[in-house]
Amino acid sequence: MTFVTWQNSQKSWRNARPPRIRVPNNEKALFTVENQQFVGVVQRLSLTGGSAILSKGPVPHGMMAEMALKTVFGKVTAQIQFLQTGADGNPTAQAFSFLSMDGTRTLN
Which of 7, 35, 43, 64 is most buried (CB neighbours < 10 A)? Predict the structure, then answer.
């Protein structure tokens, strides 16, 4: 049995990947790339990005886009950058990273 102390794990904690959640119910988002809009089904989300299956097929790696997602609390809009395809072991899913996000809500 191996025990890791906080001091030893601190370095790996800083480089750890943020937790990702699987998005249920085939939630759709609207993506806008160079004034062209298309739909994608969001697969996973995290604090730093996620992955989606895009209706128009893959977008070139590094391409900037806008993503609009409806939530129970309202619409959230994010500026994203597309990354590699094959995200989460799915050859049709494309990863993206969040650059900025609008639509901040507070719960009272």
Answer: 43
